[in-house]
């Protein structure tokens, strides 16, 4: 997120992040499940290749100066090294507590246990390192989208502190969740990510063009990822987890 | 590349790799130039953040078992560690010399000196770590596409050894290059990658759909990356470098 905090700016960030998530999932779907990447070989101190990769990648990203912003949240925050390169300070528009709000444990479990079986084909082509790298990209994009919820919450709070403050003081999680839920908006988001998967996941050929066939109308079976998986991902996990972030942030907003 | 070596299989791999390159460039284009990521700070042993990141990322990828296949070529191959996890052996369909054929130095120079100024906007938003990570993804996708040229060369050689062998023995680089060049195919590839950029780089909204507007027809100025950059990238660099790989491979094919 940039300097100005406004609902349109936050919404733009969320919409742009959808593209990154769709791209990352399409790339991961290129490879089959590759279960050995998720198993614990004796050699690796009880860690799967996927976990090893994410931990080490986060160390590298931290050295490079990542994880300074509240929307960039590591999955393994303990013992991350400090940046080795100069970083630019970002405008502090959120409550200082924002940095410690994280639902990455839930994202991790969801991704490996629920999502991977939904959008990868069963199989093992031996490309385990590539698999882990693509998994990291998916996790990173989803985590970023979900933790932008901190800005959503701040904007909404600033817009109507009189509505939020009593609920925050009463720690009324359920009422806060209701106040943050807009079913009609959520339906639109689901439709849009499904459409993005359909358009970004199609096989582009020059021939279709000359026949005047409209892009994005290829059968879903030809799509590199089932568009309904995107709709489901947002419906069951991305939007609920974003709201969990919003509520968690709001509950300490008055501290 | 998989088990079977056939021209259709190799072509499919090249076409699929186009999507990865377009996705990676669109993602990088999200951030401005961010020149400090390419400058040498005193702290980092004379290395820019971008170089530091790529070197360290390649170490991690090597530990995870990457760089076993002839199309996966590191930019900094010296002193890469061995895999820490079990790897699957891949079918050896190429001449053993294949692994050492690399044009990564040329890709590196082209990317940082020529390409980045073409597709990123001037500016500095401070996201240097993210910049370096996205650069690594672009480099990796382009390098992979270009080094699949080894398989292209092998398939073409196997298909017509009588045409290639005399030229290889005569070390006739120019004649080999001519034999590998199909202008009509190259024009098609350029048009296709441009079309992919136009379709994958558009801003998808639900509204356009209801108005019956055809996807991919938005003005290029609204596109996340100028589609002509993709056409130029392939014309000036990706296809010529792929043919350099093919020639370099063929020149030692009879050793």
Automatic annotation (TrEMBL), chains A, B:
Keyword annotations from UniProtKB, A to Z: Amino-acid biosynthesis, Aromatic amino acid biosynthesis, Cytoplasm, Isomerase
UniProt keyword annotation of Amino-acid biosynthesis present: yes
Catalytic activities: chorismate = prephenate
Gene Ontology biological-process entries: amino acid biosynthetic process; aromatic amino acid family biosynthetic process; chorismate metabolic process
Matches recorded under SUPFAM superfamilies: Chorismate mutase II
Residue ranges annotated for the Chorismate mutase domain, each copy included: 128-246
Gene Ontology cellular-component annotations: cytoplasm
Pathway membership, UniProt: Metabolic intermediate biosynthesis; prephenate biosynthesis; prephenate from chorismate: step 1/1
GO molecular function, one term: chorismate mutase activity
Pfam families to which the protein is assigned, alphabetical: CM_2
Keyword rRNA-binding belongs to the record: no
Localization, UniProt: Cytoplasm
EC number in record: 5.4.99.5
NCBIfam families on file: CM_pl-yst (TIGR01802)
Name of this protein: Chorismate mutase
Lineage: Eukaryota, Viridiplantae, Streptophyta, Embryophyta, Tracheophyta
